[in-house]
Task: structure prediction
Amino acid sequence: MRIASVGHTVFSVNMIGLGIVGLLYWDFVPVWNPVPGNVPARELFIYLGALISLTSGIGLFVPRMANIAARLLLATLLLWLLLFRLPNFLHEPLFAACWTVFPLAVMLAAAWVLYVWFAADWDRKHLSFVSSNNGLRIARVLYGLSLIFFGMAHFLAVQATTPLVPNWLPAHLFWAYFTGSTFIAAGVAVLIGLYARLATALSALQIGLFLVLVWIPIVAAGSKVPFQWSETILNTALLAAAWVIADSYRNTPWLAANSR
Result:
């Protein structure tokens, strides 16, 4: 078993879980769904994504397979983004379209980091632009842009955000705006390389707190609403991906002022 970091382990286990859930209950896995309804053999694509998720998650643990698994996952997520998500910008309201794009962009960013870590000599020679530090920078840019959107979403959809704040916390509107602001600040920090390690670590912590304080209590209370289960699964996936991005700065000082 080849373990590059804790984030690698968490992400790989999560991909295995996404694959299993996707094969059993494809409606619950937002990483691979939705696929536009006009795509031929739509359900087949969703099951294919889940199968790739499962096999890639397992392969990331096998030393001789980690490079192939990371490459396969990166290529699949990139194709999913280009073919099934980005076209939504032209056909759906901007906010809804962005919400389908940026969570997948976070997963793509994490897969890209793992691909850079596990790149073999062939990748370094033939795909040097995406398997070197350039690839790492692209992954971090994708993550930074996604964080900015997550923060903006708290402001643009504040009426949907405030009810998710736990009842025992006062000033729900404050927390909605505060968490939105911290996401935006973290995204900007990642893009300009200012305290980027600290920013990614804190953003991962905040995503984890959403999971623990918001979604787990909702589903633990016996929720049967598919959307809430889907969001819980998505939040778990985003946490795993954010952990990988944070681990990509592990050799960078916490307060480095130029770490793009």
